[in-house]
Amino acid sequence: MSSTELPSVPPTSVLPKAASVRVAEGERLRSVGLPGVSLTIRSRPPARAGLEPALYVHGLGGSSQNWSAMMALLDGVVESEAVDLPGFGDSPPPDDGNYSITAHARAVIRYLDAQERGPVHLFGNSLGGAVSTRVAAVRPDLVRTLTLVSPALPELRVQRTAVPTGLLGMPGVAALFSRFTREWTAEHRVRGVMALCYGDPGRVTPEAFRHAVEEMERRLQLPYFWDAMTRSARGLVNAYTLGGQHGLWRQAERVLAPTLLIYGGRDQLVGFRMAQKAARSFRDCRLLTLPNAGHVAMMEYPETVATAFKELLAETSSAAEPGTGAVSGALSERTGRSAGAGS
């Protein structure tokens, strides 16, 4: 093992089971075994037969719970499932310890292929936005539409507030941070995360805060918690350095699916200025900007995001009908001013 490598975690079979993951009313969890990974899938029973499938992919340090509000709002619109990426939520680490963007995308593809679930309406936030972009680029047959909330695509000038997250992927930093913060309570940690990820942490209800603290306490018990965070952060940084056909911006240009981009004006992790570059890169794109939202608009303003997706769904359904005269590839830019999202 070189000095830059992280210590390996115990095999999945010997990892202790942590406290139970929270399941909201109407949700259910199941585990799906795939080559090299085991994924936990959060789902809601379809409101009726014949709904098109949707799959939601969370960001760094998140889980399928990040999409619970959105999934509930889209009952009767799509058949919703959210994945816990390997090493996050209730999914154990991957067998090979690979947390790269490509590996996460491979896990999503393997799940969709195994379940014969595609094409899906694919949603991604932050790291999950980069993963979803790669899935849509390399397997267009699996993606019906693409909705990206603050996707973690490469930036030339990274925001100062995002630097610590990138540094987490540096050798030794996670261990140092773990030692430095060992006296921090789960409540302290959650307040820090919410201050970083929300445009207005005051929008978090006391119940949601309590659930987040309980989840943080559960995660801190996991022996692979910091390993998964560190390796995924490193995988994201490495993806930023890739050029050519494997570069994320080049892959964004290859996406064929109608795409909805959502950016928050108070995002401290993904630069708001990247919204226009992203809108120019995805060929069939709509852009929604929410001036008061932070990094997790689907959690801060789920009604606004759900409405925007319904509009995308209605537009693409109409475009698929002969004789509608819909033009593909048009950019529709709107500034969110409903549900408290406006300035």
What does this structure look like?
It is a single chain. By secondary structure, this protein is of the alpha/beta class. The protein is 37% helix and 16% strand. The protein has twelve helices and nine strands. The chain has a nine-stranded mixed β-sheet, with helices on both faces. The chain starts with 27 loop residues before the first strand and ends in an 8-residue tail after the last strand. Mean pLDDT is 83; it is low at 1-18, 161-177 and 322-343. Residues 55-307 form the AB hydrolase-1 domain. One of its GO terms (biological process) is acylglycerol catabolic process.
Order of strands across the main sheet: 1-2-4-3-5-6-7-8-9
Low-confidence stretches: 1-18, 161-177, 322-343
Helix percentage range: 25-40%
| Main pleated sheet | 9 strands, mixed
Instruction: Give the CATH H-level superfamily.
Output: Alpha/Beta hydrolase fold, catalytic domain
| CA radius of gyration | 19 Å
Measured between the Cα atoms of the first and last residue, the distance is 52 Å
- The appropriate CATH architecture is 3-Layer(aba) Sandwich
pLDDT averaged over residues = 83
Query: What is the CATH top level name?
Result: Alpha Beta
What class would the helix/strand composition place it in? Answer: alpha/beta
Principal-axes shape call = globular
- Give the CATH topology: Rossmann fold
Please state roughly what percent of the residues sit in beta strands, choosing from under 5%, 5-15%, 15-25%, 25-35%, 35-45% or over 45%: 15-25%
Quantity of strands, as a count: 9
Work out the helix count: 12
Q: What's the SSE pattern?
A: EEEHEHEHEHHHHHHEHEHHE
The domain count comes to 1
GO molecular function: monoacylglycerol lipase activity
Keywords: Hydrolase
Protein name: Alpha/beta hydrolase
GO biological process, one term: acylglycerol catabolic process
